[in-house]
Structures are given as structure tokens and as C-alpha cells.
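Appendix B, example 12.
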Amino acid sequence: MTWLITGGAGFIGAHVVRSMVEDGRAVVVLDDLSTGDPGRLPAGVPLVTGSTLDRELVARVLKEHQVTGVLHIAAKKQVGESVEQPLRYYHENVEGLRVVLDAAAETGVRRFLLSSSAAVYGMPDVETVTEQTPCVPMSPYGETKLVGEWLVKATGRAHGMGTVSLRYFNVAGAATPELGDPGVFNLVPMVFERLDAGLDPLIFGADYDTPDGTCVRDYIHISDVASAHVAAVRRLEADPDGTELVLNIGRGEGVSVREMLDAIGSVTGLDTTGEVVARRAGDPARVVASAELIAKELGWTAEHDLDSMIRSAWAGWRLRHG
């Protein structure tokens, strides 16, 4: 069996490719390299440079490599940018997915795995977010991920595909320093950037209804995210006809911003007291995953703790920034 991995040269995609190869699977990567890096790919993995919007190219890759399953990661993923450029996000995230699904259906692909996001939930007023928690996304990015889930499910039913959508929570860490996250869009690299500049990390609001007043999130190591994809692939390979799943990827443990800053300080040895500034619009007080369903359906649980996430992320940051 061969799996097409779209966006496989990106931060998350490269980790998934590596885990798939280590698990003995044949893969081919399609990536436009807008944020991807061919150097992240294991030796011998075929890379096709191009867009998921290119219907002819996608179909050719599926046929030439005799692809039997698609793992779709390629997408634009910056929440703030999506607010400013909603048309671009809908075009690339939804239309790009539609093109890939259309080509997959035409060529008889029967297994489809979508990388989704906890952004589909919006601001859930619950202690723990389950897959049944109502989805009320707060950004065009989150909307495109929810629409994508609907599209995958509908296509699977119409064309006999087994489908899985995986909702990531807050991804951090790196499997190796070379695979570290080059972006500065999430809390951990944002803190690193401030520390490198000799500035206090920013705390966006300290008056939330949480134990220490700062936002609480569920952080998950990128290696665990990758292993969850492999578990989903195994399920799809074993039972494509009976699989239609939407699953959270998280640890089920909440970590506040202050707790994260303290943990980063312990790893780096730097002062991470932080500077409290105004809240950011739309930040919910608490978003923590329930990981019960993925454990039940796939037998998967996260293996890495917070210290491992921070240490591996810091090693990656130091490699890139000295």
C-alpha cells in the first residue's frame, strides 16, 4: 500500500512522514513548499512539488504511485491571517481538499485521513472538550477545518471511503532538533523569540476564571501527533469499510500560561516571569481535550510530557537561532 501525504514537507507533515516510514509504509509527498522544506524528508521518499489545487497533478500522482490512501495535511493555518484573508483560506483549505477528494474518488482510493484542528470548537464552555462538544469556530481557519470534516465524511459515504478526521490541540516539541518548528505562531516559540530578544514573555490576560488567572490549554508533543496518524492509518488499512471517525488528539491535561512559562524557565534557565498585557479577542479561558475516544477507537494515548515538549522545542530553536 502507498499513502499520499499532502503537505508532507512541513513541520507536522515531516513528522508524520517520518513515523509512517519508520512503521514500514510506502509514502509519496505532495507539497508546494510554501512553508515546507525538502530537507525534512527521509532519504528515498518521493517528493512532488505542486499544489493540491492542481487537479491534473494530484490525479497523476495518485495513478503513477498507485496510491491506496491519502493523508491530507496541506493547509493554511494562521488564525489571524485567516481573519484578514478569508477568501484565500477557503480557496486553499476547502477547495484544495475538494480537489484531492475528487481525484481520490476517481482513482478508487478507499482510505482518507484529514488533519483537522481543535479550532473547530471555538470557545467551548466545558471542563473537557469531547468530540460531541458543539463546534462553533471563531475564525475562517476554524470554519475551513469544520467544512473540511463535513466534506470528507460526505465523500466517504458517497464513494465508499473509510475516513478519519483528527482534531489537533496545541502542538509543541520536535522529534529531532532538525525537525523543529520554524514558525513563531504558538506560545512556546513565541516565548523563545521574546527571550532571545531579551524581552519578557507576554501574558495576554491574567484575569480569566482559571486557578491562576491565565488561559489553560492542552499541549501535545508533535511525536505523539505523528503516532496518532499512524494509529489511524492502521485502522483504515484494517477496516476501510467500517471506519468513519472524528477524534481529538490531546493529553487531556490542562496547562496554564503561567505554568508553561515556569516550565520553560526551568528548561532554559532564563527569567520567564512574563509581562501581563491586555487579553486577545476571542481567547477562551480553557480548552482541554478529552482523549478517551481515540484511546477506545485506536488504542492510542500520548506518551510525552510537558518537559519533553519544551526540551525538544528548545533544542530545535537553538539549532536554528544559535
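The first strand starts at residue 2 and ends at 6. The radius of gyration is 19 Å.
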